[in-house]
Amino acid sequence: MAVGPVEYIVIAFPGNQFKGEVAPALRQLVEEGTIDVIDLAFIHKDVAGDVTIMELEQEDSAIFAAFESLAAKRGGLISDEDMLTIAAALDPNSSAAVIVWEDSWAERFVGAVRRAGGVVVDLQRVPADAVEAAIAFQASATQS
Questions:
Q1: Which of 107, 25, 110 is nearest to 67 (CA)?
Q2: pTM of the predicted protein model
Q3: Where are the domains of the chain?
Q4: Rounded to whole angstroms, how far apart are CA atoms 57 and 85?
Q5: Residue 60 pLDDT
Q6: If exposure means fewest CB atoms within 10 Å of the residue's CB, which of 3, 6, 64, 135 is most exposed?
Q7: Strand (E) positions, 6-133?
Q8: How far apart are CA 128 and CA 126, in angstroms?
Q9: Would you list the DSSP string of 78-111?
């Protein structure tokens, strides 16, 4: 079975300003077949620095209800150690979402590469600020 690349992201919300826009945007990616969410967890650190960790598997959590349908492949890839490391880096009065997903759009391509005997030699993510700077530079050079 071909598996697309698996990635993760940690998104901090300073001041615990988590608004309801993340779940619908993530749901759209899942419904369009762009990604499959494998694991999802939340960390909340209050003003005093006390930490609460909520994993998607905690069915009684309010967060579970909003994100439940998104995780088709629950996998437990986020460890307790990962969560504690992330929590330690959070400022008081902040929260974070940790999402692990498979780039399901790439499954067919990965399968084709393997069947053709191909081997991935290198794969890097170009930082968004580097891409934006290159586009801005190109735009300014074109206008000159």
A1: 25
A2: 0.78
A3: 6-118
A4: 20
A5: 60
A6: 135
A7: 6-14, 36-45, 51-55, 94-102
A8: 6
A9: S-HHHHHHHHHHSPSSEEEEEEEEE-GGGHHHHH
